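Predict the structure of DUF2229 domain-containing protein.
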Amino acid sequence: MPRALLYYRYGIAWRTFFEQLGRDVVLDEPSDRGTLEVGDRLSVDECCLASKLFLGHVSALIDAGVDAVFVPSLMGYGRFDTFCTKFQALPDLAANAFAVAGKPVRIISLRIDELRGETEEAAFKGLAARFGASRKEAARAYKAARTAQRSYDEAMAREQEKLVKSLGKLPAAERPLTILVAAHPYVSHDPFVGGVVEDALRDLGACVLFADETDRARALKRSYEFSHSIPWMVNRELIGSILMLHEHIDGIVLMSAYPCGPDSMADDAIERCIKGKPILTLTVDAQAGTAGVETRVESFVDILSYQKKGGYLNA
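Done. Here is the predicted structure for DUF2229 domain-containing protein.
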């Protein structure tokens, strides 16, 4: 199982599902510069940074001698709950990239496209049947996967809500700068991509919140106050989360993996339409080093600290 892309959103469910079916789940190591260099060689230039990292992770799993790699095809859960098209084509991308490289890989996949009647439940139960599971075993594995992922997500949301409430009880003079990192989870939580930003913020004494760690259902619903036409589910959740946390934060860091199409549109809309909080936009690409990112983060925190002391008028 590649430690990349939607693993950072659904990884608990995926691992639980296969373990319930009696399969051994193998994860490769977290991303580093070597992962990106391998993935970059396997990719075309138009692939985003996150896709290049994904191919680097698949390559590491092939080298580790796994029997198969799990690469789902995810279209979406409704008209305004879709994913970037790269997630739909990911199994073909992986198979073709490694066939050309002379490293053929066995892909285990499923397809979720609820607009076409291909539901998540049917997809997972169908995959379980291909592994020889009975209907009862398939239903049990899917239920366990859903429960484990939901429990994890709810726990993360509760912890962040508790943190926000505790910050609100502090006197203004004692309250640390609170920065919201808004990015796809495979950007914000990948140690090679978002880890640099999180570490830099914490080293500067800031309290870091993550837009993907709010209640997803509430965030999705709140996003419709911002737009009724944005089709991408994760971007919707991030926007809703920004609206939910807006009054509790001092600034926002928008992070994107170059050249992400959905982010290029959604982030621009956020910058134009969500006012009242300073926003730092960071676009990370295959050539970016950490020094430039750390310098921009440090400058952003300096500005926020000066503003908090009354040095700037609030816009």
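The first strand starts at residue 69 and ends at 70.
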